[in-house]
Amino acid sequence: MKPILPVALFATLLLSSCTNSSEKQETAIIPEPISIRTGNGSFHYSTQTRIEYDQQNARLKAMATNLLPAQGKGRENVILLQTDASIENPEGYTLRIDRDTIRISGGTERGVFYGLQTLNQLLPEAPVAIIEDAPRFEWRGMMLDVSRHYQPKEYLFRFIDMLAYHKLNKFHWHLTDGIGWRIEIEQYPELTSKGAFRKIKEAKAPWIGLELAESPTAENVYGGYYTKEEIREVVAYAASKQIEVIPEIEMPGHSEAATFVYPEYVCSGAKAGSGIYCAGNEATYQFLENILSEVVELFPSEYIHIGGDEVGKEQWAQCPKCRALRKKEQLKDEHELQSYFVKRMERYINSRGKRLIGWDEILEGGLAESATVMSWTGWEGGIKAANAQHDVIMMPLDYVYFDHYQGYNPYEPQAWGGYNSLHRVYDFPVVPEGILPENVKYVKGGQANMWTENVSETDHLEYMLFPRMAALSEALWSATEVKDWSRFKRKMDRQFDRYAENGWNYSESAFTPMIEQQEYKDGKTCITLKTELDYPVYYTTDGTEPTTRSTRYEGKIVIDNPSTLKARTFRREKPVGYPLIIADLQNKATGATVRYANPYHAGYSGGGDSALVDNRYAIHRGDDKSWQGFERNDMDLTLELKEPVRVSKVNMRFFQHLAITSVMLPESVKIEVSENGTDFREVYSEKLAAEKNVDGLIKNYTFAFEETPARFIRIQAVNPQTLPAGHRLAGGNAWVFTDEIAVH
What we know:
disordered N terminus, seven-stranded antiparallel beta sheet, TIM Barrel
C-alpha cells in the first residue's frame, strides 16, 4: 500500500498551489461547504485511479464502492479515505484535492460519506482545492407519504439515493393514514389484508367516501403494503447511506383505514371508519401498544412518530367512556384528553427505549414530558415547544411543503395548497424569531414534507421534489454566512445536468416566466416579467411561438392593441419551463365599467369592480387572488364598454375544484346586449355540461353569436347554489369563480 501522507504535510504541499482563501472558484457544490480554497490544476479520475482506506476499513470500502465510478487498480493517482478524531462534528469532513492525490478525512464514517458525496459532484475533473465542511443542523429530513399513494420498495431505494445525494439524513416514512395502512403487523393481519387496499371511485378523490376493498385482487382496487422483510431491507439500505428511517404510525386521528377494519376501537355511537380512536377505551391503548411493539423491532431509529394532528374531538365529547375518563383523570376538556392520550403512548414508547415525535397539535392540552415537536402549521408551535425546552423540528407548511405548487402557471400539474417556489424553500430560515437565545439549541433542524394526495406516479413525485430538494439541502446544511442566492442560482445550472445524468425527473418551473407586475392605464397594458433563475426570455405579441429570434425581454412590455402575449425562457438556445400565455389582451371589454346586480364575495374580490376587465388571469388554485367569487348567488353583471362596437363572441373562464373547495362550474350562462343600457335583447343562452373531474380545472368557454352592435353587455352565470351529494361538504353553499371577460 502506498504510505498515507501525514495530514499536516499534505496540507502544506496543497496550500502552496492554492489561491487566496477568500477567493472561491465556481465549483457548483450543493449544499455550499463552509470553506473552499482552490488552486491550479485538477485531479483526473479514471480507470487507473486507486482507492485506499485507513486500516482497510470495510465500511469505508463499501461507501467508495457505492458512490464512486468504476474503480481501477493502477498507480496513476489515488483517493485516500480515513476517519479523523480531530474533526469535532461527526458529520464533518475535510476534502483535500491535489493533482495526483485526494484525501477525505471525516469526523466519523458519516463525515467520510459526505466528503465522498461532495467529491462526486466534482468528478471526473476535480479542481485542486481544500474543502472544509460540516452541517449546520443535525436533523436534515424529508417526509414521504406512502399512505395516500403507495410506492414499491425498489423505488424507495431510489428515493433514499436522492436524499443521500443532497446530504439529507432523516427519512420520515409516513406509513399509515386515513386511506391506507402500509406496514405489516402480525397481530392484526387485516390492517394490511384489508386496510392497505381501497376501491377506486370514478370522479372522486380517494378520501371522499373511502371504501376499503374486500379483496386486493378485485377489480378497480388500489393499494399495497410493506412486509416486515421489505421494511428491514429499506432500513438497512438507508443505513448504508447514513440515513435514519423514522416510522410514523398515526394516532389518535387520521386512522380511517384502521378503524374500518377494527371498529371496536372507535367511540360508542361513532361510525366504523370514523378515523378517531376512542381515548376512553382501555382496549384502544392495548391495541396501539401491540402495534408499536412490532414497529419498534423493525426500526433502530431513536424516534417513533405518532402523528397527533388534526384530531376531530367531537366524538370524544359525546362518548360515555371518554367522559368517564375525563372525570377520573380530572381533565377539563377534550384537548387535555388528547394530551393524556399522547402522554400515555409516550410512556409506552419510552419503555421500549424510543422517543416520541408528534406534529405540533400534540401541544394541545399540555405537551408530553420528553416529546419532540414537528412544527408544521407555522412557527408558533415550534417557538412554544423550544422555549419550553423541548426538541423541535421545523417544517412550516408555507416554506417546505413540497406538495404545494412550485410554479405560478396554469400548466403546473395538480398540487395542494399554496406556492412554495425554489427561492421560497431556499429562504427557509429554520430558526424563527421568538425563540430565546438560550433555547435555540432545541431546534434540531428541519425537513420538507411530500404529501401525495395528488401524486401517484414517480415522475410526478420527482417533479415535486426537484429542484426544491437542492434548496432544502442548502437551507439545512450550509452555514448562514456562506449562503448566497445569487451563487446558488448559478450552481443550479450544473445541478440540472446532474439530475439529468442520474435520470431524475425535475421541474422546470423556476425557468418559467411569471408576471411580476401588470397595470392597465391610459388605454395600455404594461407587464413586467420575472423568472426565478437568470436565463434569457423571448416573447411575441401576435400569438406565435417565441424563439431566440423573437424580441428579448428587457424590462417591460407595453401593449396597446389586441394581442396574445407569449413568453418563453431559453437555456442553451433551447426552450425550458412552461410558456407564459396571456390571450385577449386589449380586447373590447378591457377597461369597461362593470356593474353588479349581485355582489361578489368580499374575501374573493379578484381585485375589485374592475377585476374581470383588467386582463389578469388566475391559475387553477382556489387561493389565487385573481379569482372573483360568488357564494350561492348567481354572477349577474353588466359591462359598459368604452364606446359602441360590434360584438360576436364573449370568452370567459370558470374554475372548479370539487375535491378540495366548494367551487363549481355554473349551471348555465345567458348573455344580453343593449345599445342604450335600458333595452336588452338576448343573444346567447346555454345550459353548461357538468364536469365530473374532482381535481382543479379551468374551463374555457367561447360564447359565439351573430354579430350585433352593443355598448352594454349583461352576463348571467347561474350558481348551482348547493353542493351535490357525494361532495365532502354536500348541502353546503356552492361558489362560482371567474377571472376575466373578453369581448370580440
